[in-house]
Amino acid sequence: MDNFKRVQKIIKQLNIDAVLVSNGNNMRYVSGFAGETGYLYISEKHHAVITDFRYTYQAEAEAEGYEIITIGSGGYEEAIKEILNRDKVKRLGFESEDLLYSKYEHLRDALEGVELVPIKDEITSLRRIKTKNELEYIKKAEAIGDKVFTEILTFIKPGMTELEIAAKIEYLLKIYGGERSSFPAIVASGINSSMPHAVPTHKKVEVGDFLTMDYGCVYKGYCSDMTRTIVVGKANDKQKEIYNIVLEAQLAALDAIKPGLKGKEIDKVARDIIYKAGYEGCFGHGLGHSVGLFIHENPRLSPSEEDLIEDGMVETVEPGIYIRGFGGVRIEDLVLVTENGHENFTHSDKTLIEL
Q1: Exposed, middle or buried, 277 (CB in 10 Å: 0-12/13-18/19+)?
Q2: What is the pLDDT of residues 204-244, one digit of tens each?
Q3: Is 177 within the bounds of a domain?
Q4: Model confidence pLDDT, tens digit, residues 21-53
Q5: How far is CA 139 from the centre of its chain?
Q6: Domain carrying residue 230
Q7: Total structural domains within the chain
Q8: Max alpha carbon distance in the chain (Å)?
Q9: Nearest to 38 by CA among 51, 24, 57, 56
Q10: 281 in Cβ contact with 328 (< 8 Å)
Q11: Which of 74, 96, 127 is the last residue of a domain?
Q12: At CA 34, angle to CA 29 and CA 37, rounded to 5?
């Protein structure tokens, strides 16, 4: 991969000599190396993966064209010091939004005479616009989620626990080709569905419950994300009202998506519908977020997002209404922002399903 050239441009723009990448997703994006431990070093002259013996072979296989440096008894600090001396680095950029302070201290103390320069999210921002390959991986991951939704509807029965349903979802995600879940599956029934990020419990699903299922998988490193809310049994009038308001808000937001809008402008479309229906205070999270190598990326669709949504970004659209002591509804699709609007990667039914 030649994404290191894009990092070299950042190095020049920031007037630094080199950069040390610590964020694992950024290391994978730039070099291809997906190991759990290590750093990526890039200067004008060199691009290297610094890791330990456990990941040496993996780095050689994945980071084509990169120098692979395996640390010795001196640890990472000694290996980094040696390559900085070789390149005569005086100003080293580091990912200040990722590096632990304790590790920063160790580097600062070990690299005497080298100025550590915070570069915030400069490299992370390179990942905002997705390539053709990235889009294919995300689309495949979301297709796996659609397949799981179809099958989980045949599995759910009153008396099952939220944990049983969550376990089945995560099992199916892998059976159908996912490497792992992109986040722990959320399965929330009855009053638990009033918590947007409820953790599955031993609560049994009862007839008449809302059942919210929010899950995704990873395919070739890239995440998917979707949510559907159903009713186990027959929906009552209040449940139908809430569901239809959320669906109206979601469809309106989807229609509004196009490049050049601020994230907060798209969020407002859905939020206004929910608030005008009398549910202000019941939609406490943002409308959505970007998705890629990490499940929650920027820019977001939220009331405070000033960044523009651009062609080639992938965003979730997930409005909700949550009522304490009653339950809640969330409907979430994953979409690609296109030149003229969007392409929806999620194809599962959004009409209210009553099992």
Answers
A1: middle
A2: 999 999 999 999 999 999 999 999 999 999 999 999 999 99
A3: yes
A4: 999 999 999 999 999 899 999 999 999 999 999
A5: 14
A6: 132-344
A7: 2
A8: 72
A9: 51
A10: no
A11: 127
A12: 115
